[in-house]
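Practice problem: predict the structure.
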Amino acid sequence: MTTTQPVQSEMPPVPGRKKPRDFNELTPAWNVFFNIIIGLFAFSCVFPFLFVIIISLTDEQTLVLEGFSLWPSKFSTAAYSYIFETGHELFVSFGVTLLVTVTGTLLTLILVTTYAYAVSRKSFEFRGFFSFLAFFTMLFSGGMVPGYIVMTQFLHLQNTIWSLVLPLSLSAFSIIVMRTFFQTTVPDEIIESAKIDGAGELLIFARIVLPVSLPGIATIGLFSCLAYWNDWFNALLYYNKPELTPPLQFMLMKIEKNMDFLTQNAQNLGSFNAAANLPTETVRMAMVVLATLPIVMAYPFFQRYFVQGLTVGSVKG
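Answer:
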């Protein structure tokens, strides 16, 4: 038995009409063009930080005489030497910031993921109330004074590490983001199938929901890590004992304040030469480098999950 193959007829070319140009012929040229545009944009983002590093390694007198330049005539590490003259306090301050960042980020992820997962399930009876409760705090907050009273008078956590962790541990914005992520990423059918097999809510959340939600968790974790790392205001509020070592950001701010005090009061103190030799501008740039470099080095490890967390759910189908 023979089978007949369908005959594919091609449309005859219309006289006087040009054949449309294949898009693949334009792809290499457009790729080069867009790569150049994206490369210039990436360089414009990285260049300011590189310029700050160059200024921090510039001699203070050269900076005053010649101004800012991409390649100064004289380099110097006096700014970093001035900062590290604080001795072991700076390293202890770095350790405090690292402890606060790690502890706060883990606590934030636990609170945000559990709260967001609960309000993302349609079977949760009070999910509308708790969703509104989280959203309401984004519009109207209690303020600084009530928060200070709760932290110091009711919880008695002043001058403790928890006074730096708890104020930033539960973010309404993070809850809304994770709730949307759970709704768009975790189908109800998977959860119903797990319940039929006898799995409880905690087992479903730990073994099914969290593994498929790593992009969203990494995104919230990165936001929380940046918030804890750059926080200095809570140390200003709740740390009032001189023997306590503050976080890194607050320590760098104290160094800058002391340096400005010596510079502005040099005439009263009778130390013109000492004030003139203080690397004021370069120290500020060195502080930016010390405060930013650890996060810049850690960001590539979160980049893959971070991009997925921002783009997931944008196109569904």
